[in-house]
Amino acid sequence: MSRKEWQERCTRGADTDYAILKAKAQNPQLLSTKTTDPDAADYDEANEIFANGIKLARIGDFDAASPQIATSYLLDGRSTTFTPRLQDAGDDEARNFILDGELLITLLHHDETTFSCDVLYIMLAVFMGSVQGHGQEMIAVAMVRIDKLVSYLEKHPEIEGPNSIVLGGCLTRKELLYQKSTLRMMLGDYKNAVKDLTMALNIDEFYTKAREARATTWAAQHLKTDVKIHKEFTRILVEHHVDNRGKEVAYAFLAMTTLGNSSLGTFRDAKSWHDKMITATKRRDEIYGKRRHDQLPPSVLTVQRKFRECGDLEIFDTLGVERMTLNEDSSKQKRACLSCGATSAAGGRELSKCTQCKVRYTYIYIYIHTYLG
Q1: Residue 9 to residues 14, 82, 251, Cα–Cα distance (Å)
Q2: What pTM, to 2 d.p., does this model score?
Q3: Which end of the chain is more exposed for a tag (fewer CB within 10 A), N or C?
């Protein structure tokens, strides 16, 4: 990743609508009333803890504010509303529901011996890692803090228990490794980011957030095969709650990998994953709020584009065999087994039945890597 790409990724979201954030802070709508997804309940709790932390910080009670803000971030980082400069909000009341850079620095230096301070350093790196000349230094400091915390927790595992009084039991090795992987990705160090996520999964194989991040990185950086990525997202769907906000991304990658590898299914199977993605996207917006088209995950946008490009495909069944045709020159079409992808019989003879799966051939346009890209 180039320096420019890194900055753009870290500073994205500069068009924050503070009026919406203000209304949300003043009249919070509990997501847990819309779904039984445990992640929604965590988000509600994190929002409440963050709001209390900001109130305490604004009146100068930093001893109480720091652990609350740190806990809310570990519980669900989406609850943390941050702006580098408070004046950017254009509203004096914004200080009552937004953490700004100046306040974060004040909290950092209040007491640097606490676990809360270590977490605040992580937050600073995530939020301000794109600052020219200082961003990489912030990230380096945060990763040192993470390594220190992980080592300490290895010696004191009781701190990680759900009943721990230290940051509400949210300070865990798996979460810290997840945060470290995020920082590595900001620097473009994807391979080591994946190693951190794998270490987190070695601690807890059902830490689905890490599994999803790892699978997404595999796909985006072409680090694993379509088959491996498909298998991983299939497992992620099983582990996810039916309303989990990440399901749309899982369905998107299942659609893409199926399109890219005929051994994973037919075009109809890919279309089925696409339709489930659309349903998951609508449900996600019902729970968390409607998004603009450009706010959708890149994987979702890519799948939508691919299926729009497939608009001229005619798909129908003949004797139980799926058939696809395009208004293209016949020289661009060839026979292939829809189940295994074989394009010729043994000895190079013309295909009539697949020699591997005994399924009738079908005319299929080889478009996966050309027409769809």
Answers
A1: 11, 15, 24
A2: 0.79
A3: C
Comparing C-alpha atoms, which of 107, 98, 104 is closest to residue 131? Answer: 104
Cα separation, 281 vs 251, in Å, equals 10
User: Quick one: pLDDT band at residue 162, thresholds 50, 70, 90?
Assistant: confident
**Chain segment 77-113, per-residue pLDDT in tens:** 998 989 888 776 666 677 888 899 999 999 999 999 9
Segments making up each domain of the chain, as ranges:
3-204, 221-305, 314-365
φ, ψ for residue 334, nearest 5 deg: -150, 155
CA separation for the pair 38, 44 (Å, rounded): 10
Each residue's pLDDT tens digit, 265-291: 988 899 999 999 999 999 999 998 899
On whether the CB atoms of residues 65 and 103 are closer than 8 A, the answer is: no
Cβ neighbours, 10 Å, residue 223: 15
**Tokens representing residue 3 in the block:** 């320096």
Q: String of b and e for 228-239 (b: at least 16 CB within 10 Å)?
A: ebbebbebbbee
pLDDT tens readout for residues 126-143: 999 888 778 889 999 999
Long-range CB pairs of 16-25, under 8 A, 24+ apart, other chains included: 16/83, 18/89, 18/90, 18/91, 18/94, 18/98, 19/91, 21/81, 21/94, 21/97, 21/98, 22/91, 22/93, 22/94, 22/97, 25/51, 25/81, 25/96, 25/97
The share of the chain scoring above pLDDT 90, in percent, equals: 60
First and final CA of the chain: distance in angstroms?
Answer: 22
